[in-house]
């Protein structure tokens, strides 16, 4: 073992199983060792989960469509939520595709674009069809999207692109079903 190495387990082991080996660690030089009891680690892990769940609860309650939802129903959603970050300029969903998750924006914002077909007049007096993205609005903090696309399995009618880094809680479609 060298500097920053770890040993032991952070899980509580009820009893030593037959056939397992026990090892000892003997230090050759003076050294500092940080000892974390497995029960203490479990308590810290539990506290972290509680704080995270409170953040998720607060986020969902602040989304306009979920303000009136009962807390018990929101707790069912919380169990399925995972945090995810997207970089600026990331295409979250393209128009015509079914989104694979429901998103609850915690920080950052996304631009919404509608894909339209337009005509461009060329120099030779001919007209060419072209597809353009037209800015329609923005999804901001404490807003959600994707519920209808995921639940009804219908294509998204707009393209959603992150403007800056976006942190959101998501529920993947497989978990929702």
Walk me through this protein's architecture.
24% of the residues lie in helices and 30% in strands. The chain is elongated and about 85 Å long. The chain has 4 helices and 8 strands, in the order ααββββββαββα. The chain has helices at 38-62, 71-78, 147-152, 173-176; strands at 82-86, 91-93, 101-107, 110-121, 127-139, 144-145, 159-162, 166-172. It has 177 residues and is α+β, with helices and mostly antiparallel strands. The strands form 2 sheets. Strands 1-8-3-6 form a 4-stranded antiparallel sheet. Strands 2-7-4-5 form a 4-stranded antiparallel sheet, with no helix packed on it. The longest helix has 25 residues, at 38-62. The mean pLDDT is 87.
pLDDT averaged residue by residue: 87
Q: Could you describe the largest sheet, including whether it forms a barrel?
A: 4 strands, antiparallel
Radius of gyration: 25 Å
| Overall 3D form | elongated
Q: Runs with pLDDT <50, length 5+?
A: none
Query: Which band does the percent of strand residues land in?
Result: 25-35%
The helix-and-strand class reads alpha+beta
Give the distance, in angstroms, between the N- and C-terminal Cα atoms: 46 Å
Question: Helix and strand string, N-terminal first?
Answer: HHEEEEEEHEEH
Q: What's the count of strands? A: 8
**Count, helices:** 4
Spatial arrangement of strands, main beta sheet: 1-8-3-6
> Helical amount among residues, as a percent range?
10-25%
